Structure formats: C-alpha cells, structure tokens
Amino acid sequence: MSKVRPDKVATVDEVKSKVEGTTTAVVTEYRGLTVAQISALRRQLRTLDADYKVFKNTLVRRAIAGTPAEPMGEFLVGPTAIAFVDGDVSAVAKALRDFAKESPKLIVKGGVLDGKTLSSKDLSALADLPSRDVLLAQLAGLIASPLRTMAGLLKAVPQNLAYGLSALIESKGGTVAPAEDKVEEAAETPAGVEEAAPAASDDAAAPVAEVAVEEEAPVVAAEAETTEAPSEEAASEPAE
C-alpha cells in the first residue's frame, strides 16, 4: 500500500480551505500559456479578490467531494487553473474574458456559484453585467432621484399657493398690498386713534386778532376821558 505524498495532502487541504472560504470558483484551461502570462493574470485577478492557481485535477476532485463546489468537477479536464473568488464574480468573469480575447489559448470552461453549476455562457453573461460598484452607484441614483423630485415639489407648493391666492384676489377686483407697506402703516398710526385736524394757518388767525383790538379800543379811550377831564363843579368854583 503506497503512502500519500505529503505535497498531495497539502494540496488537497489547500483546495478544501479555499472551497470553505468562498462559494464561487471559475475553472479555466491554460494550455499553451507561458508562465509570464499566467503570472500576469494571477496579479490582475488578485486585485479583484480572486486567487488564481494551477491544480491537478485528481487532487481537486478529492478535495471538493461532498462539498457545495463538487458540481465543478465536470470541468476538470486538461491543464486546469482555478480562480477562487472572494469579490465580485462579474468583475472576475469580465477580466478572464478580456484576457482570453488577447490570449485565445486561455479557455474559460465554467465554474460553481453557491453550489450551482456555471456554464461558459453563464460566465459570459456575468461578464456583461456592470461591476458591483457601478450597480451600487446606479441604485443610489435611483433612490436619490425620487427624493430630489419630491423636494422640488414640496418647494413649489407654497409658491404655487401664493400665486393662486394673488390671482384669486385680483379676479375679485381687489389688490394685494405688499406686506411691508401694511406693517409700516400699522406702526405709524396706532389702532383707534384718529389723525388730528390740521392746525389753523396764520392768515386765518390774523382777522380774529384785529377784531379783538378794535373792540377793546373804545373802552380804553372812554376810560382816559373820564380820568383826565375835570368835573363841571370843580371848574365853576372860584379859586381861594
């Protein structure tokens, strides 16, 4: 009975750990790609939170047996490299598709998502979707748009009401006095107090004064004659 090599055991344990850490994996065939090309693709996928690595098919089948990732076993044919995805699967599918366009030797075969098989067509459809960040931005825009519309409507309500009231008053033959003029008028004239009559002019007062002087003049003159003129009896008496 042959012993299992420690490196194979380590590989199986590694695949099991990756399967337990993520629910999404994409299987590719890298036949004909250079080491430099595989390394470049690995670095690109790492920026998308995906770990891309070459594995032996027999060890992968052993590792995924009885796990949710078992359906991807049907794609384990030929030289295999698997991308275990922790981030946005659509972004990873797009990166693999774009790389395959530049390097046709890379073949995206399929994968697994939450225990369900992903075909190459499914991955192509995922690649056409916007990225997670773009979808979140679009969702935020959809949520914010009704809020902006509602804010505009609420702002227009008092303005339209004011215009409606003004038009109604004018249609009844009235006028709308500015609010500032009404406040100033109320402040200058206290409520319940009538304005004082205008004072008489100097020209109107002059004739009254003249009449009063003419009526007093004869009285003064009479008093002067009574005081200065001697009586007739005093004049007829001889001086001693």
DSSP summary: helix tally: 9
Number of domains: 2
End-to-end gap: 196 Å
**Secondary-structure class:** alpha+beta
Q: Assign a percent range to the helix content.
A: 55-70%
CATH level 1 name of the largest domain: Alpha Beta
How many E-type strands? 5
- Report the order of strands and helices: HEHEHEHEEHHHHH
Unreliable sequence segments: 191-201, 204-209, 211-217, 219-240
Strand content: 5-15%
Q: Supply Rg.
A: 56 Å
> Main beta sheet, described?
5 strands, antiparallel
Strand order of the largest sheet: 2-3-1-4-5
Shape-level CATH architecture of the largest domain: 2-Layer Sandwich
**Average residue-wise pLDDT:** 75
Shape call:
elongated
CATH homologous superfamily title of the largest domain: Ribosomal protein L10, N-terminal RNA-binding domain
CATH topology of the largest domain: Alpha-Beta Plaits
Question: What does this 3D model show about the protein?
Answer:
This protein is of the alpha+beta class and 240 residues long. The protein folds into two domains: 7-129, Alpha-Beta Plaits (2-Layer Sandwich), CATH 3.30.70; 130-187. 59% of the residues lie in helices and 12% in strands. It is built from nine helices and five strands. The protein has a five-stranded antiparallel sheet, with helices on both faces. Helix 1 packs across helix 3 (57-64) and helix 4 (89-102) crosses helix 5. The chain is elongated. The N and C termini lie far apart (196 Å).
